[in-house]
Amino acid sequence: MINFEEEELKKIIHEIARNNGLNENTKIIFSKGSEKGDGYLGEIVNIRAIDDVTEKSLDFVAKIGLKDENMRSIYPYSEVFRNEILAYEEIIKSLRNLQKEANLLSIFNPSPIFYFASSVLNEEYLILENIKISNFEMLGIKQLLDDEHTRMICETYGKFHGLSLAMKTLHKQKFFELAAKLSDVYSLKTIEKDIKFFFGKMWISIRNVMKEKDVKWQRYNNYADNSLDIMDDMCDLKDEKYFCFLHGDCWTNNLMFRYKNNNMGQKHLEEIKLIDWQACRIGPPVCDLSYMLYSGASKEVLSNLEIYLKIYHNSLSSVLSQLKLDVNIVYPFEEMKRQWRKYYHYAVILSGSIWKFRSFGENQGVDPLNYKSQDGSSYIDAIADADCDTDYFCEHIKYLFDHLDEIANGNILGPANTHETSKTK
């Protein structure tokens, strides 16, 4: 381990193991939990605790903050760890309690089991259930969302957002108490100088690639030149009625999928867990789903966007109905479409860096655990400037922009109302 003393971590795991029925002499085994290109801005360690007497074992994953001063100078580590700890300790727990209070037969739990955490400066970490042992897995970095995965993602986020909206309606004081503790890590008031300009740098890099490929679009000029203003506008909720808790950093590397085989031996998706809640915040529900789709959906999925939005909204409506709430009051379908037309720029700007990650070849990319600058540039600069598969990059940005033009022209989601027109259009 690079960022944590092994003996200290062993003490913590022994305590958790004892609290979960393992004996004093439990054996602790560490192994590497992430690879270059996984996208983690921290160290991931897999841990197995084995009781030699009963042969019972528990499997954990530890997420440990980097100690590197240069990385900490550009990334809000303290805020993201506090956010994630709050999400596991209080927000997700509150959503489970809401379901239990309503005596729901099936309790939706969107995340792994949370065991322990520290938010002490320079000693931040979380310890969670290792759901890989329960056959959850990630999609490959270049694997795009097909129909099956998109449907279940929409259903999963529909349940999560439905519960969050229900909490805001039924337990308003508790909702806003928790919301007040969250930091919006994409807000210009929170992020540091270097990362503040990251999105603009990324879209300048995308513009350069597109120009090399002779692909002309005013849209990428807008994102390259105005990303800070657009992001600031998208994070402002003063005139927004419909908002809830968001997962926040919702691209496919922050979801894990479990599959089952049917009688014919065919593999089918069974369940999804949401991980990495570091960007958890309040905002319009569509921000999660649009970020997920615009950073990783296939061309076929985007062409059927309205079908998936109906799946999402039906899932959300079902949750609200079980809690005796009317979706037409809490979050009407037309309001969801209005939000999508208004806030999709937020998702697109964030998606630029994800498409860059997806475009890295085997020996490309930048590893935050081992990054050392040779010329004073930051990790953020290095990601924006790194070589990648420009053909892949251009192909996927192009079909995303084709889709965005369809929205702007009113061919998807219908025409925008006059009051929806803004400087981001």
Automatic annotation (TrEMBL):
It comes from the Eukaryota. SMART domains: CHK (SM00587). Residues 126-322 form the CHK kinase-like domain. Pfam families: EcKL. PANTHER family: PROTEIN KINASE-LIKE DOMAIN-CONTAINING (PTHR11012:SF30). This is CHK kinase-like domain-containing protein. It comes from Henosepilachna vigintioctopunctata. The lineage of its organism: Eukaryota, Metazoa, Ecdysozoa, Arthropoda, Hexapoda.
